[in-house]
Write a structure and sequence with these properties.
- The complex is a heterodimer of chains A (352) and B (270).
- By secondary structure, chain A is α+β, with helices and mostly antiparallel strands.
- Chain A contains 8 helices and 20 strands.
- The longest helix of chain A is centred in the middle third of the chain and has 18 residues.
- By secondary structure, chain B is mostly helical.
- Chain B has a two-stranded antiparallel sheet with strand order 1-2.
- Classes of the chains: A alpha+beta (352), B mainly alpha (270).
- At the A-B interface, strand 6 and helix 2 of A face helix 9 and helix 10 of B.
Amino acid sequence: MKKNEILRIAGLTKSYSGQRVVDQISLSIDRNEFLTLLGPSGCGKTTTLRMVGGFETPDSGEIFYENQIINAIPPYRRNINTVFQNYALFPHLNVGDNIAFGLRCSKKQEKEIRLKIGEMLELVNLPGFEKRSIASLSGGQQQRIAIARALVNEPGLLLLDEPLGALDLKLRQGMQNELKRIQKQVGITFIYVTHDQEEALSMSDNIAVMNGGRIQQYGTPVDIYNEPENTFVADFIGESNIIPGIMKKDFLVSLAGVDFACVDKGFRENENINAVIRPEDIIISSPDEKAALRGKVTSTIFRGVHWEMTVETDHTTWLIHNTVQASPGDNIGMSFEPDAIHIMRKDREEQV
Amino acid sequence: MKNRFNRYAWPYALWAGLIIVLPLLVIVAFSFTKDGSFSLDGYKLFFTPLYLQVLFKSLDLAVKATLICLLVGYPIALLISREDSRRKNTLMLLLMLPMWINFLLKTYAWRPILGNTGLLNSILEAIGLGKVQFLYTEGAVLLGMVYNFIPFMILPILSVLDKMDYKLIEAARDLGADNRRVFFKVILPLSLPGIISGISLVFMPSVSTFIIPVILGGGQDMLIGNLIERQFLKVGNWNFGSSISVILMLVILSTMIILSLFDREKRGET
C-alpha cells in the first residue's frame, strides 16, 4: 500500500450481454495525480470511469477509495464528482444554481454558497455569470461551468469523461491548458478519459492506454510515446513505422534485412521482435552507398509543420515526417540513430 | 417562403373560418341577444346564485378530477418512462387501448360495475360488508372523469420524461442528491411543461362534460355542461345557452392563460 494512494482498482471486470467491456483492470492513483485513460471508442475507458463514479456496478473486482471498498456505495455518497461528456448542466437552473446544486444537497449555509459560487466562477474565468441562463452560454463556457459545478464540492477525486470532445480545435487546446492550471491550483486528483492522444500526452502525469477492455500500457506520457510496449500502443500514440525484425544480439537488430545498432539489450539470441521507428526520427539522405536503406517516394503531403512522405523499399512502406521535401518518384536514402529504434518484445503483444 | 406558406395555409384558414370562427361568432351574437335585439339578460340570469352554484360545482369537480389524474398519472408516466423500449411500447398501447372504444360505451360500462346490484356491491355483499351507494354519486362522476381523461395527463408527461436527458439525473446523483432530491429538484421541474399540458388537456373536457354526470351521476348534480345542453335541447333558450357557453369559454381561456403564465414564470426564473 502506497502512502499517497487515493484510489485503487483491483481486477475490475464488467460485461454487457456477454461482452466483456472491462477485463481485469487494475490501477493505482496517487493524490494530486492527473491520470488519463486513453483508448479508442469501445475500449472500456468510460465504463471504468462510470464504475469509479458509481453509475455502474462491477461484475467482479474492487474499487478502493481512501483504502475503503466503495463498490456498493451510491454515487451521491461518494466523495467523487464527475464532469460529464455533454456537461449535463441543469437547463432549468441558472449558472449560480447549477454550481450551488451540490452544496445545497449537503445543506451548506446560503451565505457560504454565495461565496463559493463567486470563487468558482473566478477559478474558471467566468466571474459575474451567476444569473446567466445555461442556454445563453457557449460550449466552452458550459464546459467551464460543468467543471465549476463539480469542483465546488471539493471532491477527493474528479472524473472527467471526454470533457473537451464537443469543443472545436482551438478552444480544445485552450481548455487543455486551463484544465491543467485548474488541477494544479485546486490540488485535486483528476481521472480523465479521452480518445485524443494529444490531449492525453499534454496534460497527464500518467496515462493508461486501453484497448479491448484491458490496460495495454501504463506510464508517463514520455515513456508511452518513446517506449511503447506493443504494436497497439505504438500505433495508437502518435504515428509510427512498425517493422518486424530479429534481435541478433545485445545492441544489434536486423530490420528489413539490414543490421542496425540500437540501445536495447537483454533479448534471446535471434529473438523475433517488432521495432517502432517514429516518422520524425528518420533521416533522409541521397540514395548512395552510405544510406542504410534506399527507397522511392510514392506520395508527399504538406502537413504545415512538416512534409509527410511515404517511401517504398523492397521490404515495406515507410512513413516519414521531415521539413525537407522529397517529391513523388524521387529515390532517397534513409537511416536512423540507434536511440530512434524502439524494440518491442513479441510476447508483450497487445492483450485482448 | 412566406408566400408559399400562405398558399398552403388557406385551406386550413377556410376550414377554421367556417367550422370554428363562424359558429363562435354566432354563439357570441346569440349570447347578447334576446328575441332578436341586444340584451344582457342571459348574463344577468347566469350571475344568480342558482346558476353560479352550477359553475362552482363544475369547477370543483374538474379541479378534483385534474388533481387525481395528476397524482395518479404522474407516477404511471414515470414508471413507464423507465421501462425499456419494448415494454414501454406495450404499456403505452395498453394506455391508449381504451381510447379506441366509444366514449359513451366506456362510461356506460361502469354502471353494471357500480350499480346497486352491480359487480362491486355483489362482492361487498358476499364478503359481508353490505351495500354501498356508488352509482349516482359525486364520486362516480369523478371516477368517470378520471377514467376517461387520465390518458391525456399521462401521455404529455410521459413524452417529456421520455425526452429527458438521463445524464441530468446522473449528474444530480453525482452531486450528492438522493432519490427524493433528484425527483423534486430535477425530474419534477423539468417535466413541468408536460404537467401543464396534461392539466389543460384534463381540465378542459372535465369542466365541460355533460355525458358523464348524466350516465354516472344520474343527473343529480347539474354541471355546467348539462345546463348548456338543457338550454339548447330541452328548454329551447338558445340565447341563455349561448351566454353560458361564452362564460364557460372565458373560464377555460383564463385557466389556460394562468397556466401558461405559470409555465413562463417558472422558465423565466431560470
